[in-house]
Structure to design on (310 residues):
């Protein structure tokens, strides 16, 4: 784990931060009547080849530089929505439970100053505490999305990070996470979801549905069979949390699909359907792993998808 000093959380309204390196940051904007915050919950570095699947390195390297271990810099961005039921958090970063070797392999950088991780620091910068969160929604249960669902305390015991929250996830995703095979086991750790089941805070949903007013689960299979995106709607404005359907802005071209995806051809069809809706319905899409760009509207130039200029 890196021990170098990190700056305090950087708070910004709206526009993307002009950052050379990933730093803890919170960006805030209005979506209809909802105030929403993009909280950078940490950094990680994953193998560039695995991040772009069949795309040759000479192509992806033009857009995303690799380090000396062939890894690319990624963020772990959560979305916090100020909703009438209370605070709703979408995904929770990586948490504090993995060991030093793991954090070195994956370039994890998320140690907090006022709490265990950058996520708690981000909440603190908004004058909020984990106890204030009413609902946590997991896009899927991979460690870099659901690791922050639980926290290892000073006593070594692993507990839900958000003691007053209901934790919402797809029933099929939990089943998939509980029955791993040689290919999927490296991504699913029971300590990220079993303590939630044990505490009675788990709420399972099946397929597409409105979870709470204005926040809809939308199945986006491919990365995992029950991966879900979240469509947020308020006063005619729409935002969509893509999670691992298109983890960074470099993943907008349809065939730029991660090697990690268990069903890449299903991802392709899901992307075709979802990105078309994003343009047609003027969604603000949220990029979970992009180190710099939190959100954007999209455009299609007749050939491929890209960030809209405004
Ligand atoms: Zn994933």
């Amino acid at each position: 784990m890196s021990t170098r000093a990190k700056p305090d959380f950087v708070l910004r309204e709206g526009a993307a931060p002009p950052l050379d390196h990933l730093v803890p940051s919170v960006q805030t904007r209005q979506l209809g009547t909802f105030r929403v915050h993009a909280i950078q919950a940490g950094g990680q570095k994953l193998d560039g080849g695995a991040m772009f699947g069949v795309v040759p390195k000479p192509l992806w390297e033009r857009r995303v530089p690799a380090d000396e271990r062939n890894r690319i810099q990624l963020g772990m961005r959560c979305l916090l929505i100020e909703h009438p039921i209370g605070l709703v958090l979408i995904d929770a970063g990586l948490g504090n439970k993995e060991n030093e070797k793991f954090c070195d392999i994956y370039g994890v950088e998320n140690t907090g100053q006022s709490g265990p991780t950058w996520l708690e620091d981000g909440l603190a910068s908004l004058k909020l505490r984990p106890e204030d969160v009413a609902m946590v929604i997991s896009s899927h249960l991979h460690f870099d999305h659901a690791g922050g669902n639980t926290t290892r305390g000073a006593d070594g015991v692993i507990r839900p990070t958000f003691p007053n929250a209901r934790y919402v996830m797809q029933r099929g995703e939990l089943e998939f996470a509980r029955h791993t095979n040689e290919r999927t086991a490296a991504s699913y750790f029971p300590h990220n979801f079993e303590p939630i089941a044990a505490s009675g805070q788990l709420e399972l949903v099946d397929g597409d549905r409105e979870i709470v007013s204005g926040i809809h689960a939308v199945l986006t299979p491919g990365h995992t069979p029950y991966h879900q995106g979240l469509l947020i709607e308020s006063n005619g404005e729409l935002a969509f949390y893509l999670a691992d359907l298109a983890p960074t802005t470099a993943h907008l071209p349809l065939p730029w699909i991660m090697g990690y995806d268990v069903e890449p051809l299903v991802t392709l069809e899901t992307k075709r359907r979802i990105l078309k809706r994003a343009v047609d319905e003027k969604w603000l899409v949220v990029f979970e792993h992009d180190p710099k760009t939190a959100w954007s509207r999209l455009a299609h130039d007749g050939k491929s998808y890209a960030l809209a200029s405004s």
